[in-house]
Amino acid sequence: MSETETDLPEDASCLILDDDMPFRTRLGRAMEKRGFTPVLAETVLEAKRLISQDPPAFAVVDLRLDDGDGIEVVDALHARRPDAKAVILTGYGNITTAVAAVKAGAIDYLAKPADADDVQKALLAKGGQLPEPPDNPMSADRVRWEHIQRVYELCGHNVSETARRLGMHRRTLQRILAKRAPM
Q1: Best CATH choice for the domain 140-178 from the list 1.10.10, 3.30.70, 1.10.8, 1.10.1040
Q2: Which CATH architecture has domain 3-124?
Q3: What is the pLDDT of residues 141-180, one digit of tens each?
Q4: Record's Gene Ontology CC terms (predicted)?
């Protein structure tokens, strides 16, 4: 048993709500390796059903989902289990949503793609204590690239629409999309 597993409470159930199946599955496996008992959900409705049946001790919740937002889920979780710790994940980091997440009872707010180690640190941080900063934070270039990829995906891979929404020239966007992700 690793040192981090001994820090886990007896009930280490962890709801992971994200509409991105590959990310949800990878994070579930990674959290299981760290001693958590993951329960995976794809929609707000499914997560609320799972919470009503057996509220987990921890939750990792995507902010924006097809059928609602993760703040609803954090509210539902705290209504059933006030001592639960929840972390909000988002590809759209801004002050307004961070404040809303904290008001709903989330203990942390992490930008996607979040590393499982960062999620674990946030979930296990003692009350009032901030988790340690990440060992290898994403570079500014990587954050920019991730944001562009997310908007491109949300625009249905339409280069012209993505360029319009990002306020950049279409050819510039095409050059960025043709390159590999920066480290």
Answers
A1: 1.10.10
A2: 3-Layer(aba) Sandwich (3.40)
A3: 777 877 888 788 788 889 999 999 999 999 999 998 888 7
A4: cytosol; protein-DNA complex
